[in-house]
Amino acid sequence: MPERRVAPPAPLARTAMAFVLAGGRGSRLMELTDRRAKPAVFFGGKSRIIDFALSNAINSGIRRVAVATQYKAHSLIRHLQRGWNFLRPERNESFDILPASQRVSEQNWYLGTADAVFQNIDIVEDLAPRHIVLLAGDHIYKMDYEKMLRQHVDQGADVTVSCMAVPRLDASGFGVMHVDPAGRIVDFIEKPADPPGIPGRPELALASMGIYVFETRYLLEQLRRDAADPRSSHDFGKDIIPWIVAHGHAVAHRFEQSCVRSSMEENPYWRDVGTVDAYWEASIDLTDVIPGLDLFDRDWPIWTYAEITPPAKFVHDLDGRRGEAISSLVSGGCIVSGALARRSLLHSNVHLHSYAAVEGAVLLPQVDVGQGARLTNVVVDRGVRIPPGLVVGEDPKADARRFRRTEKGICLITQPMLDRLG
User: For FRET with 244, which of 46, 143, 265, 302 sits at 20 to 30 Å CA-CA?
Assistant: First the structure.
């Protein structure tokens, strides 16, 4: 008799909901988040940071998505409305933007990450997904959530927490966990001042990536219990996850098991671009011949609002006045007019004027660099007009007086900083 074929299990992503927490300011990005929330910060030439979590959800097969916003959310909401309005209710899809609307309490905005979900509990119940994939909207990575959902179901977990090993001294900004040989989380500490190392590998710590999977019914039970606790800070990392570790079945999901990599990517890639230095480094890494993150991967595209721009343009061909870009990413609408860009990332509609030179520069959309200006190792905010002849990156003391200069020597430049120069 012919061998009977066993049908593969139905994708769990189709009955799941992605709930993205995108309300944080991201104060360590300094002036970059004065006017926008961290998930709305530009990244990679044409995307926003939040596009990575949302693209992972769509590419994984999830068709119900909600985004909770709070801090200075206008630019984020506008981006979501423009770029993520293709999900259709008539196809059993949904995309909900959930500002802090005081649905539960007229006195409280979102008090914490758990409260952000609790205040929208009626919307979640109405959609009735089988599972909730809870995501942070401010990290750069590619991941197949279907694999994490499958592990969650197969192991009968109450919560599954995605994690990865990071240098121990860098782990104080994350939840840090210990797991037993079966992968069960036996201890979870949110943002410890002195993170514990991994047994046998003391230089590393096992850090939570802020990605959680719950069965919906169980999650809602925990949210109601937590909301009734006056001692709680109503945060997943500080309250919900440690309670489940102590009283339920919490398991770890290793990022390398579901990280999406093209043939060009050797190692799992995940970045918290929460500081100016980290943001600059991740952006400039994209200019490498073989970058750690492959944005050209057509099998796992990063969806975003596709702004209509003309092609990039390079003009003039005279010695000392030649439009050139070397080891750089140049987005649509850019004009490199007799100027040089080296190892730089130019977002949409940047204009470099004659005799200007930029190196190690992350220029956000609509930056205008005047004639003869020289910029080295900088992040320039959207719409900034660099005056002709300005030199940044060659005199550390002068840079520190005029701009935001980091410990690693990266200068953040905004228009108010330039206006103060007179």
Answer: 143
